Amino acid sequence: MFKRIFKKQNPDKLSKVNYWNKWKLYELFKDLYIAEKILTDNENYKKEDNFLKFKDDFIEELHEIEGDNVADFTRIWKWFAPTKEWDTFCGENGNELGNDIYRITDKWKRNQDFEKGTKVLLKNEFGVVLDKTVENEIYGQIRWDTNKEKDIEDWRGLFGTFLQTGEEIISQEHQFKYINDDGTTKKASR
After folding, report:
1. How far apart are CA 85 and CA 51, in angstroms?
2. How far apart are CA 163 and CA 120, in angstroms?
3. Mean of the pLDDT values across residues 136-163?
């Protein structure tokens, strides 16, 4: 018991407040409540079943994750992705708010596990997480931005190890030199 009480805390572990600050969750919840108000006040779709289902699912999810000790923002991330539910029902009026929500949840999501299309940096090499393969239903193969024909490393199932090696999720706006955003090789310009 003595060891448990006086055991050194893991210096890499964030407090809950620091975690919320790091992932901008205070700002996210503020924006999510604004989104709830917009959906509740939206007169254009009040009688459409698809809208009502989305609104009800969104409100239920918002209040559920608010009470979670470790919230999962995956559904919010999917709904606010470009051209998804939020854009469909709110269009231009909710564009800026939707982009802010997506930006925060996208950064959070891409730092939880490998996701297709995530741009990464490891030991001064840029790369992108490839799509799943027929033989393996797990993300984690990374195509590195080099001029080699096939420069792919397999990190499937090793996300935690990848983070510990100094990996970094970089801006999804990063432009590769030799590969496209999906990991295919850029064609040489003629």
Report:
1. 9
2. 10
3. 92
Report residue 121 as tokens.
Answer: 């940096």
Q: Are 114 and 34 in contact (CB under 8 A)?
A: no
Q: Would you place residue 44 in the very low, low, confident or very high pLDDT band (cuts 50, 70, 90)? A: confident
Question: Does this model's pTM top 0.85?
Answer: no
Judge contact between 182 and 152, C-beta under 8 A: no
Give the Cα-Cα-Cα angle 57, 63, 64 (nearest 5 degrees): 85
Q: What residue type is 122 in one-letter code?
A: L
Confidence of residue 11 (pLDDT cuts 50, 70, 90): low
Q: Which amino acid is at 97?
A: L
Q: What is the C-alpha separation between 77 and 58, in angstroms, rounded?
A: 11
Mean pLDDT of all residues in 12-25: 85
Of residues 3, 34, 176, the one with CA closest to residue 99: 34
Q: Which residues pair with 144 in a beta bridge?
A: 127
Whole-number Cα distances in Å, 117 to 34, 84, 85, 145? 29, 17, 21, 13
pLDDT at 9 over 70: no
Which amino acid, residue 71? A
